[in-house]
Specification:
Order of helices and strands: EHEEEEEEEEEHEEHEEEEHHHHHHHHHH
Number of helices: 13
Number of strands: 16
Strand content: 15-25%
Distance between the termini: 56 Å
Helix content: 25-40%
Largest sheet: 9 strands, mixed
Radius of gyration: 28 Å
Length: 467
């Protein structure tokens, strides 16, 4: 009996939010502008127009490479990538081929157990390799209206970073998790809006399936695998702008490939599109190899030499990245891993949390830092107080909400006993070893007391009565 293993690599395109184009002075990211109103001879590829590289785009690409633990090449250059397509006015794209800006990186993804309530335990992680990070210019945009296809060249020439992974993924779940972490990192670096609805972050999985016989399995089930073990084909699904769509496209393709392999057929190496309405992919064109693009060095742009001092000056501008911040919250503030993870998904939210916490520590230095951090985290994550408020207003509301509640002990005893008698199965579960069962009773007591009871006091009372 044959077994099958998906082998998946990713190409991710990220539009940088520089003020001007990659090789010209046209304004970019003009999503509401009239079509073809932000163009010039350079981005339209008119004869005699000469490209001038955008320094900021190069620095931001280096920064992305550093955030992904890549080696920054000291020598790099631009190349011409030739192909004919309506949205490419020059007939070639200025890209990078054999000497990209960054190579050989890795990204570790935290694996969060959202069912765990344990504190001070750093999550385990999965590591995925980054093959390269290179810089190029974006193409124009095709707009399909009925039987007509229109072209808007406003996007043409926008600085575009391409991040290419190794084929280290074996499931759509891992791909989705990786892309979500990468998206968070890009937003932290503040080099792109990474707005998938606007197409400023687009994802292209390269998918194949390899056959594993029983005597190989599960020894060869781990990636990375050698080049000799890679399937002889791959299918690229182009320009997907949603994490969920990527997952669904991969699941569809893996099933399609296995069905073909079961019939003794090898899937065609091709480029496919994703139809989210039909929940399926469709063929676009036969996939090209590198030699089909007739790469050669861009003659109008000299090669670049980066000194160690230059790349180090860029590295010093890196912010604390989300996984680093998450680990710090767990270690220093003793937050639950799931809460630390949630807080660090958005840099503005995490900054707000730290400002509130710093203010509280400054004004109440004797208060336990661990309890204070978790309490503030709970208020933010559960949206008990709006983070649109000023820090002072947030603290004022938090102080009121977190103030210990005076509990009517006699009434609490009566309510606890009544609800224990009314829920014999829950009581039996608790006494049978299911410690979590008591939380149902806690909720019922709090509801009965209309919030006029401290949760810890309620838990203590219930445990005392249940002895």
């Amino acid at each position: 009996m044959k077994q099958y293993q998906p082998v998946i690599g990713l190409e991710i395109h990220v539009e940088l939010k520089t003020e001007s184009g990659m090789f010209c002075q046209c304004k970019i990211n003009q999503f509401d502008a009239e079509p073809n109103s932000h163009v010039c001879p350079v981005c339209l590829g008119l004869p005699g127009a000469l490209p001038v590289p955008n320094k900021k785009a190069i620095e931001w690409t280096i920064k992305i490479g550093q955030a992904l633990n890549c080696t920054i090449n000291k020598h790099t250059k631009f190349d011409r990538k030739h192909y004919s397509y309506p949205d490419l006015p020059k007939g070639y794209q200025i890209s990078q081929y054999d000497e990209p800006i960054a190579v050989n990186g890795k990204l570790q993804i935290p694996i969060i157990n959202f069912q765990s309530n344990s504190n001070n335990q750093l999550p385990i992680s999965k590591e995925f390799r980054i093959h390269r990070v290179h810089l190029e210019e974006d193409t124009g945009k095709l707009i399909h209206k009925g039987s007509d296809t229109l072209i808007d060249f406003n996007r043409s020439g926008t600085p575009l970073v391409e991040i290419v992974t190794e084929a280290d993924f074996t499931s759509s779940d891992d791909v989705k998790m990786f892309l979500e972490e990468l998206h968070t990192i890009i937003r932290y670096l503040d080099v792109s809006d990474a707005d998938m609805e606007k197409g400023t972050m687009r994802m292209e999985p390269n998918i194949s399936v390899r056959v594993i016989s029983n005597n190989q399995f599960p020894i060869s089930n781990q990636l990375p695998i050698s080049k000799s073990q890679l399937p002889k084909y791959k299918v690229e699904v182009k320009n997907i702008n949603s994490f969920n769509f990527v997952k669904r496209a991969i699941d569809y393709e893996v099933k399609r490939h296995i069905d073909l392999l079961e019939k003794g057929q090898t899937p065609i190496q091709e480029t496919r599109g994703w139809d989210s309405n039909k929940n399926k992919t469709y063929s676009q064109r036969t996939k090209e190899d590198a030699h089909d693009y007739r790469y050669f060095p861009e003659p109008d742009i000299p090669p670049f030499e980066f000194s160690d001092a230059y790349t180090e000056s860029i590295k010093k501008t890196l912010v604390e990245l989300p996984h680093q911040k998450m680990n710090r919250y767990i270690e220093i503030f003793k937050l639950k891993p799931m809460d630390a993870y949630t807080l660090t998904r958005d840099i503005n939210t995490s900054d707000y949390f730290e400002k509130v916490l710093s203010n509280q520590i400054a004004t109440s230095p004797s208060a336990p830092r661990n309890d204070m951090g978790q309490a503030i985290a709970n208020l933010i994550i559960n949206k008990k107080i709006s983070t649109e408020l000023s820090i002072e207003e947030f603290i004022k509301e938090a102080t009121e909400l977190l103030k210990p509640k005076e509990t009517d002990a006699k009434l609490l005893d009566e309510v606890a006993l009544k609800l224990i008698n009314a829920n014999p199965k829950v009581v039996a579960d608790y006494k049978g070893g299911k410690q979590g069962a008591i939380m149902f009773l806690v909720g019922q007591v709090m509801k009965e007391m209309r919030g006029k009871a401290d949760a810890q006091t309620v838990i203590s009372t219930l445990k005392q009565v249940l002895k």
